[in-house]
């Protein structure tokens, strides 16, 4: 932990598409982020945690950072430059049907008129993107983009305008059949079928253009299910998941690959990382574990089996996010968490 006097900075990671018990749905990790933002002076997390489809919660001290950008940040390749306001570009998949396309555009217009966001331009790709969804035998999800070049050409066209600081992307995803896997997910005990493919799309844009990016899928509404889980309910509210993406990107930090300036945040500023106990194998955790305390949360069960002991990564395992909040509060206060119990050992003579 860096002991210099900078804002107490926490990185909250809940990897996408791995069926996390907390954070595996649209926005159900947001209560954790809200609470953690009261303990941390600066909270860094990713769209998977903060996006709640049409629901969101503004956190003034939270940085909304796409996953590939987070990995580059943790590796020390990029720093983060906080922003008060980003001008947004909206990239839409030509494969979206006309009515569903209008729903996306109306959601963006609403965010301008109601929330005061700046959407400088929108562009439609010159060909359908064609996203394919896939699932591993473990149950984790990912996807394939058949026509990635059309995404890159559309993004480049928007960025050439010079008045776009961040990109929101909406692509047409295959409609989900109401089979056992989707029913389980909607009832609160499955894996998000689209999250892994969403990460592929945002990674592609961020890697190529080094610009904040997040994705919202375009899907036809599902039939009403009165037994829907509260965790899945945010995804049932309307025709689009775009509002939370636009809100997050409106204040997303810029990526800086050159020497950091005053006010930029580097990996050296991270005081603690919080991650599910079985999801410690990601690049960000591996990079930061060499210099930063890792808190692994046991009750956020996932489909991954990448525990810290198996990887040789030193961590402090806690039972819950409530316990993690207590440890973070102690660290911020400069208090050894072990001294908060009754078993503090006496020093020998």
Q: How would you describe what is shown here?
A:
- The protein is α/β, with parallel strands linked by helices.
- The protein folds into 2 domains: 9-82 and 256-335, Rossmann fold; 87-252, Rossmann fold, CATH 3.40.50.
- Helices cover 30% and strands 19% of the residues.
- A 6-stranded parallel sheet has the order 3-2-1-12-13-14. A 4-stranded parallel sheet has the order 6-5-9-10, sandwiched between helices.
- Helix 1 packs parallel to helix 11 (321-333).
- The model has no long low-confidence stretch (mean pLDDT 91).
Tell me the layout of helices and strands.
Blueprint: E1 9-12, H1 30-39, E2 42-45, H2 47-50, E3 62-64, H3 67-74, E4 79-81, E5 87-92, H4 98-115, E6 118-124, E7 131-135, E8 141-145, H5 148-160, E9 166-172, H6 180-186, H7 195-209, E10 213-218, H8 242-249, E11 254-256, E12 270-276, H9 283-288, E13 294-297, H10 308-311, E14 316-318, H11 321-333
Parallel strand pairs: 1-2, 1-12, 2-3, 5-6, 5-9, 9-10, 12-13, 13-14
Antiparallel strand pairs: 4-11, 7-8
